[in-house]
């Protein structure tokens, strides 16, 4: 029940109840006390008035008595004052009495006061008329009546006091009852207040404690605890719900992350495996290749074949075989070691020798080597691919064949190498593309070229290695015209010279 | 514990509140009542109509209480206020003082027995001079300026009693008479009536007359003395209330029950009991209720300008015993 209320409402209501209880208690007490005081005051006033009347009567008697002793004027003034005062007192007699016996007595007092005034007036008249005997008579009668007034007043007072005395136990009883009710209400209010406070604190503090505890557990990583119980009051409920939701979300997120991490790990593992497999394959390929291209095996085979050719008298074949062996030796040397231009040109001549043996008259070759350029160092297998391109692409497709010119000359600290053919040429844009794509893997492999026709090292490879070796770019220029041949020019700085 | 706290609070609160409410409800009357439970009697409502005062001979005397009841009944009917006063014991000076007080208090009418012929006249005159009518009841003040007399014809009472005495004594014998006070006119009339009545019986003599002061103890004492002094005494007569009862006690103490006849003049319960038992031969009962009633009625009518009769005779009844002691 208390869960649906706002804490503020509950607190306010609790305060209101307690305040109302205590407030009405205080009001009741005050009200009763006031009324009691009023009642007693009324009673006292009534009784006082009666006493005042007797004194007023005595005052008139005194004034009357003095009149025979002092001057007429002074005596009459005093008398009139006393009589006027007596009239006032008669008017102030109580209008109600506490005892039934006293009510007619009040009336009697009033009438007796009148009788007294009549006698006193008669005495005055007698005095004015110098009738001493009459004055004495009326004065005595007034005295007698004054005595009656006194005794009647005493009876009245006695009756009233007796009446109040009789009700006093009842007053005490009622007061006691009120006091006990007061006490009960007070105790109840205090208990209620304590109860409210305790319950409120419990209902607020306990959920907060459990929330804090749960938060602590979550901070330590234990997300699997039970949900926090909903507190009482709308606000605490919201808090609890939000907390539980957060915890659930957190759990969900964490498991999601774990799942993702799992998946990624697995993917990575897979990738690694694939990579490894590829590299292994490559290794295998390489090994297979290498095993096939074992130099010793190859050379032994060539030697044997050359020997066999010589034995058979095929000198040309023998010569070709030796050239092939040299070529292959050059190809299988340590490729990272730079070679001299001379060596490279020699390798090119050997290559071309073999190609000429294939193409015969269709392939013509001219070489112009500057001896000053010969000692220049450059990376291995850079000229041969160029010449090879010229052979394959430039001339290989033509029925008539063509001529390849290789010119190497030294220009101060540069060596300019030109490989020129008069083959099919290429459109300028293709040349530009070849140059532009120097650094991309597929550059230098013109479309449609199968791997079997080339040694596999394209223009890209050559250019890149030259760049790396000389630490410069733009070393290669290609000038070509479709149908007008191609000229690949290398402009290489002199870096080192071989010590011959 | 949290769950239980949720129920404990409203339950305890309800219990507390309901117990407090029960307490309040139980004491609601007390709580709402004025703290000073004074029932106020308004002076003004004390009727502004005529106020009469009945001055009893003795305040607590049952006879006078009966007169009071009659007077109050008439007062209620005629819409007048009646005040009842009187000395505790038969005390003519005190009684007169009360009369004077009533006159000073300007009552509208006084009902009083005349207890002393000489003394009462001037006071009654004073009252009448101030416009306050006086009606005598039970005992007249014949020489005064009283308006009327309401009561028994005392002389007739005496005579009736005399006849009863003669019958009781069989026509002869000594008679001892007890009376309250010779000065009280009604007593004097009764005695005179008795003497006159007994005069017709030559063999009957009134041996002695003693005053009891309207006190039963004194009556017993006087009766006892009579019995001692007059061994031949045949009849004891009491002319005021309590006298008969006192006489019976004396007779019983003297051991002369059955030999001395007692007659009385009241219908007090004690006397009636003796009558029942036969210790009292006869008693003349008056009608005090009627006296009170007629007196108030007369005064009320007088104030409405009706001329009152001079005398209102109230009935007297002679009651004889039914059995012998």
- How big a fraction of the residues of chain A is strand? 5-15%
| Structural class designation of chain B | alpha/beta
Q: pLDDT below 50 for ≥5 consecutive residues: which ranges of chain A?
A: 438-456
Overall residue-averaged pLDDT value of chain B: 87
- Give the DSSP E fraction of chain B (strand runs of 2 or more residues): 15-25%
Helix content of chain A: 55-70%
Quaternary state, please?
heterodimer
Widest sheet: strand ordering of chain A: 3-5-6-8-7
Distance between the termini of chain B: 92 Å
Overall form of chain A: rod-shaped
Assign an overall shape of chain B.
extended
Q: What's the total helix number of chain B?
A: 11
How much helix, percentage-wise, in residues of chain B?
A: 40-55%
CA gyration radius of chain B, whole angstroms: 29 Å
Cα end-to-end separation of chain A: 107 Å
DSSP summary, beta strand count of chain A = 8
Figure out the total of helices of chain A.
11
Please give the order of strands in the largest beta sheet of chain B: 3-2-4-5-6-12
Give the gist of this structure.
The complex is a heterodimer of chains A (500) and B (325). Chain A is rod-shaped and about 210 Å long.
